Amino acid sequence: MVTCYLRYVVDPYQLAAFEAYGKLWIRLVEKFGGKHHGYFMPSEGTSNVALAMFSFPSLAAYEDYRVRAATDPECQAAIAMNDKDRFIISYERSFFRPVFEDDQGVRRAP
Q: Residue limits of the NIPSNAP domain (predicted)?
């Protein structure tokens, strides 16, 4: 399993637009076989940083999602939202592997 972590710098005056965008991507990631763990909006502290995390069974499955999403009309419409309103200033993408506890109390990657 691979988990994609996204850190966004967003326009703090357009948080509602970014939140609507995020809600679309939750469903779209799952449409292509991923498990979305949600978007995390600014609350206390920094007002222009938002996070998202989602997982795929493998890096190859994630790459397949990226290829398929590039030509999907719903994904293109979601991307067009930001192209029009520019609520995302920048973003960083990182990948992680999860660690889980097995039946002997030891945490390990799947």
A: 7-99
Domain that holds residue 74: 2-89
Length of the chain: 110
Look at residue 97 and tell me if it is in a domain: no
Question: pLDDT digit string (tens) for 60-93?
Answer: 999 999 999 999 999 999 999 999 999 999 999 9
- The reported pTM is 0.84
Give per-residue pLDDT as tens, 12-59.
Answer: 999 999 999 999 999 999 999 999 999 999 999 899 999 999 999 999
Question: If we measure between CA atoms, which residue out of 47, 4, 49, 43 comes closest to residue 26?
Answer: 4
Q: Domain for residue 106, yes or no?
A: no
Angle at CA of residue 87, ends 51 and 62, nearest 5°: 45
